[in-house]
């Protein structure tokens, strides 16, 4: 009796269960909602992890360089030169000791250097995130996907892409440069 029930449910053989599971999986993987849900999970992860990141060394270094450019431009490289002379390596990012970028980088960061450091760093992160999102929209429009799964899969891949999170977490000025 039990064998008859199993065969009736699974078709005619144990392979019938596998075949039904395969068909169910194919059906689920063809749902755009499945990919939209995955994309939403990864975008939420990206936003939450970016928000709770305690430091953004690249942005902090840019703020320091722009602040030095505004307050004492003739000596904006003194700290980096002293650190380099002392250790023979460029300092880890986040301080004026590490600012070895050209003056246009400092000029680019002047708007955030006018704000208190912690607020300026967060504002730059928001600007960076908006720029990344705008470029993803432009890329999406350029690709103009036609398949019904292409749109959710594009946004899923964009949200999962590790350098995207690294860019926002560090507050990089050059977007995906590493």
Could you explain how this protein is built, in words?
This protein has 178 residues and is mostly helical. The protein has two domains: 1-30, no CATH class; 32-170, no CATH class. 71% of the residues lie in helices and 0% in strands. It is built from ten helices and no strands. Helix 3 runs parallel beside helix 9 and helix 4 packs across helix 8. The protein is elongated, with a radius of gyration of 25 Å. The termini are far apart.
Brief write-up:
The chain has 178 residues and is mainly α.
How many structural domains? 2
Average pLDDT for all residues: 82
The SSE order reads: HHHHHHHHHH
Q: Give unreliable regions as ranges.
A: none
Can you give keywords for this protein?
71% helix, 2 domains, elongated, mainly alpha, 178 residues
What is the topological layout?
Elements (H helix, E strand, L loop, with lengths): L1 H9 L4 H15 L2 H21 L4 H15 L6 H10 L15 H6 L1 H4 L3 H27 L6 H11 L1 H9 L8
């Amino acid at each position: 009796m039990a064998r008859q029930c199993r065969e009736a449910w699974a078709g005619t053989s144990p392979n019938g269960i596998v075949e039904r599971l395969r068909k169910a999986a194919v059906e689920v993987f063809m749902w755009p909602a499945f990919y939209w849900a995955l994309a939403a999970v990864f975008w939420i992860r990206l936003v939450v992890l970016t928000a709770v990141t305690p430091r953004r060394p690249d942005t902090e270094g840019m703020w320091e360089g722009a602040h030095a450019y505004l307050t004492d431009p003739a000596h904006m490289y003194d700290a980096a030169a002293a650190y380099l002379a002392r250790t023979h390596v460029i300092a880890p990012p986040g301080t004026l000791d590490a600012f070895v970028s050209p003056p246009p980088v400092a000029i680019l960061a002047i708007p955030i250097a006018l704000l208190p450091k912690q607020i300026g760093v967060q504002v730059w992160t928001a600007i960076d995130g908006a720029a990344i999102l705008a470029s993803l929209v432009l890329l999406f429009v350029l690709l103009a996907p036609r398949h019904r799964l292409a749109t959710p899969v594009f946004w899923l891949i964009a949200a999962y892409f590790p350098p995207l999170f690294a860019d926002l977490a560090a507050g990089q000025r050059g977007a995906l440069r590493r």
